[in-house]
Amino acid sequence: MSTELETRIADWRAYAERRRELHGTDTDELEDHLRARITELTDAGLHDDEAFLIAVKRMGSLDELSREFAREHSERLWKQLVLPAEPERETPRREFVAALICAVIAVVAVKLPVLFGVGLDDDAGFYARNLSLLVLPALAGYFAWQRRVPWRVAGLLAGAFVLGAVAINAYPMSDDSQSLVVSAIHLPLALWLVVGVAYVGGDWRDGRCRMDFIRFTGEWAIYYALIGLGGGVLLAFTVGTFSAIGVDAEAAVSEWLLPCGAAGAVVVAAWLVEAKQSVIENMAPVLTRVFTPLFAAALLALLVGLAWTGRLDVERDVLLLFDLMLVVVLGLLLYAISARDPATGPGWFDRLQLGLVVVALLIDAVVLAAITGRITGWGFTPNKTAVLGENLILLGNLAWSAWLFLAFVRHRVTFAALERWQTRYVFVYAGWAWFVVLVFPLIFTFD
């Protein structure tokens, strides 16, 4: 076979290996099947490229995979020969019904405390502690049903939610304690990763499955934001139109429509991601392409400003802003990795990402120095210790990512090494989040 044909087969195999439903032996068997069909077609007189396209199209058990591969490789010939052959499979009605039921469960869970005299306005502290515990179990339940997770895994998921509920509510922390604030911030992250276990059907050890969940997280955030923007416009019109006829709808909107809509949208956004992932291109990688150069320029300007002024405001809010910026950089890195074909070599965008990671690493070092100064002068507190730990975790990720990126652009390692590093680091995030929720209040005596 020609070199060009071998390249096409390698592209197809790399795409197939990223599919969660296919294992290594499955891919080997399918590749053998593909090569046999190509040989038959070339022996019949077809050119290599024609034989390849037709062979992929005729692999009946992989019709959906073939269409998605055609979508990712947007050459016109691909779309003409592969896409029109069969209409898209409609999302099963039962999945929509299941998502709707889980969304209703989330809505009921958010409003259920009202029956016991705990309102959103009256007891904001209760919702600050428990909001993620009220909503995320419904989302985990939806994925557990969809993925048909074993009962053992379902029990572990339920146990994780119970553990989080006990820790955030049983510890004697006052509403104004730093321990409560830090735990309430980290609990949603810890529980979101529990949802990830349900999303991958319990197969959390598989790096490809973890990367699928990372992709889902980015798409879910975008869909949820879009739903929130549309819902905000709808609520504004509702309040305005009812006000025009002399009816005050603000109470109903703030107490019912807003919290219920926000809770239900958590599951609805997840269903939309699952339903539309084979119809339209993922949006998170596209936005990553747009914002990576912009963030690289902004961080470089910030680094120059720090060098010029020689100082950094060490107030807590400022440090938190820097941490959020570093998290965004990490998100850009993750979603660029998630959408990239690991079989291709380094390009200009990889070098741009290397520059972004290096600048972010330098800024993280400056922030760590500022945090260390605050701790040296004022001592350890839950807030400062949490920020210190998070920056150390980000430093470790960014430092090794920069090393791997440098090795990749110098053709020393494959891109798959970067992907493996990022997916394995999810365990570090999960461990830290649960450590803060479960252990921090004990270390700082619930203050």
Give an overview of the whole structure.
By secondary structure, the protein is mainly alpha-helical. The chain has 3 domains: 3-85, no CATH class; 93-276, no CATH class; 283-413. Helices cover 78% and strands 0% of the residues. It contains 17 helices and no strands. It has helices at residues 3-17, 24-43, 48-57, 63-72, 76-81, 93-111, 124-147, 151-170, 178-199, 207-244, 250-276, 283-309, 316-339, 348-378, 382-409, 415-438, 440-443. Helix 7 (124-147) runs parallel beside helix 11, helix 8 (151-170) packs antiparallel against helix 9 and helix 10 (207-244) packs across helix 13 (316-339). The longest helix has 38 residues, at 207-244. The protein is globular and about 80 Å long. The N and C termini lie far apart (70 Å). Residues 69-90 have low confidence and may be disordered.
Please report the number of helical segments. Answer: 17
Largest sheet: none
Helix content: over 70%
Mean pLDDT: 82
What is the H/E string?
A: HHHHHHHHHHHHHHHHH
Radius of gyration: 25 Å
**Spatial gap, N to C terminus:** 70 Å
Name the shape in a single word.
Answer: globular
Number of strands: 0
Low-confidence stretches: 69-90
Number of domains: 3
In percent terms, what proportion of residues is strand? under 5%
Structural class: mainly alpha
InterPro entries: Perm_prefix_1
Organism: Cryptosporangium japonicum
Keywords: Membrane, Transmembrane, Transmembrane helix
Transmembrane segments: 96-120, 126-145, 152-174, 180-200, 221-244, 256-274, 286-308, 320-340, 352-372, 392-413, 425-444
